[in-house]
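Let us practice reading a record.
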Amino acid sequence: MKERRTHALVRGVKKVQPYWLAKFDHASVVTPGLFRSLNKGTAERRQPLFIEHVFEDSKTVIRIRSPELLGGDDLKVLQGLVGIATEAARPYCNALQEFNDGGRDVPPESVKARGTCTMPELCRASGYKSRSTTGYDCMRDSIRRLARVTIEVIVQGVAPPPNAEPFLTIHRLDDEAPNIVDVGFHAALGAAILAVGDGEVYVKVNLDEARQHTSIPARVLHHRLSYLNEGRKQEFRPQTLEAYIWPGEDLSGQVRARSDRSFKAALAFNALKSASGWAVEEDAKGLVSIRRKRDARSNPLQAQRQAEGRRRSPTSDAQNDFLRRAQYGFRGGAI
């Protein structure tokens, strides 16, 4: 199979490798307990999932239900699917950005975010190392598990939807060759994939960094912290970072389990500390300062506009405002 190649969008910008960026909605990243560090096939995984999360604006409530808990392997597959959809939507996003900047070409209107690929492509995008029948079966199980998740968004002053929306919609999932996968996403995630702008209307998950994390706790922690906008810095307590990986679990009376979990959390923290896209420092009080570095690949068109002294047009601002309202009515930032 030939490797897909993504050409540079702007002259002078370094060519980017395929599937390095996944654009998520905020709820899929910051909702506590949506993804957690779980071992495959454990009895703990078969517990039902119910999350009711109120965002900091106190006007938006997210309810997520699933017959099973979601683990790090499910997160891997979802990141791969969203990364593939983000790459496929790049031409549309570029056309929309140019149109907002005063270009003449009108972008197509009937574009939907879809994750369409083969199993080998999904392995490469998600970082799955087992490219075998067993590995493909595990990925199919994760896709079916994600499809059983429902999400309900309740915004104050807005009529709630009549039914909860499926987190993932399976259009095609082959159990054997040619191993085609075709899925759709819920409305907010689809809007994030098709969004343009400076990253305030979606969350950037760097898949190059995510694939470098071989342990599930490190990958879950990286995903959870990706809500930090590039260039932003925030302080955390070590207990907060540990709760991002294993939310809502009290091990105060279990000394051995608590020690084992602290050791795994320390390994995940050290993995993030060694990642190239993050700057991590610890102070004398025990607080952890984490800053996300800027990536020049994030928006080369915007970098070109800034170099030419061009500003965002009112049309672009209006487009971003619409997408912010579509994604639960809040801006990016600390939650």
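A brief commentary: The chain has one domain: 21-326.
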